[in-house]
Amino acid sequence: MTPPPPKVQRYLRRVTLLLPPTAARHVRAELHGNLYQTMLDARLNGLTEADAWAAALRQAGPAIPAAVRFARTHTLGLALRWLLAAGLLGGAAYAIQGTHPTSPTQHLAQP
């Protein structure tokens, strides 16, 4: 596969801007393949290569909403794991600190 034009490279960078590096590489490669196939389909319809790349980008949609969708998909699980770990550690720290408030075991009569 030939390297994409600069406009496509910018699009790929913008779409993967919010992702961790490993996920960004995978998503960028997958998205580049999809854009390339869309460009080839447009070429079969008689467009020049530059026009076909432009058509592929139009069909892919704006970069920022796509970046947000990819970020939700690839980072929400990580955020939830961190939140769960923090909750578990906080609960464990509370359990071992030993200064729990005592609850009354019997009621005292008030005069």
From TrEMBL:
It comes from the Bacteria. The chain crosses the membrane at residues 78-96. The keyword Transmembrane applies. Keywords: Membrane, Transmembrane, Transmembrane helix. This is Uncharacterized protein. It comes from Deinococcus metalli.
